[in-house]
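Quick question, first post here. What does this chain look like in 3D?
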Amino acid sequence: MTEDRVGFFTDTSVCIGCKACEVACKEWNAIPEDGLSLTGMSYDNTGALGASTWRHVAFIEQPRPDGRTQLPLVDGGPDHGGGGGDGGGDLRWLMSSDVCKHCTHAACLDVCPTGALFRTEFGTVVVQEDICNGCGYCVPACPYGVIEQRPSDGRVFKCTLCYDRLGAGQEPACAKACPTESIQFGPLDELRERAALRVDQLHEQGVTDARLYGHDPDDGVGGDGAFFLLLDEPEVYGLPPAPVVTTRDLPAMWKHAGVAALSLLGGAAACFAAAAAAGRPAGRGGR
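> Answer (accepted):
Ran it through. Tokens below.
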């Protein structure tokens, strides 16, 4: 992995749900409109990440769990308690801008037969749409369910972390457009340090549920290139609690398959040898 790896730190505690990141992503990457239909369950009008939604701001309205501390108004952040600055009310809003995680151990890379998916010099994972053949192998391989095929042509699309902008020395469009700096871009090691300090700050202010997700290099995907500060369990945000790279066991599986194949070949060779020996005519000494 490159030493100059960059990524995203998304601090959901200051997300206001404005969806500026979604708009900026679509505008810069010329992503087609994908419905904008209200689900009836939320104010969210995009629903989930997909081939035509590379950034998705989740709106989660929930009864405030017993014993949970309302997020205070810190550094101009929103009142996620849902009951005003005085701490009243029995509902709270959780908002989070989701994106491709750009995994350290990316299963989509492992299964792509054409090389359409590749690791960039920035440590990010990008799809080359002109090489993608639409096989769809990467779709079930992703432990986060990020990659999707576009119905119009069958090819897959996802966040590129604005690879073209990075090459020009610019930050990704979504981070540039975020008015609260909920989406932070930079060297991954620096972002991890900054995120740890932010969690400590929130804990000191009584927000004990604040935790990081996807930051640990020792997790099931080797750490994410896009990680998050959450205010509840990952499942609440639609994130898997313990993601694991789906191709983790491939080397062992190929090894076992190779041993089994050699065993079959050895058995077949032994059978042919035995059959040949049994059918061989007797020599002169046997007459």
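The beta strands are 6-11, 55-63, 91-99, 117-119, 125-127, 148-149, 156-157, 183-187, 211-213, 226-230.
Residues 250-278 form the longest helix (29 residues).
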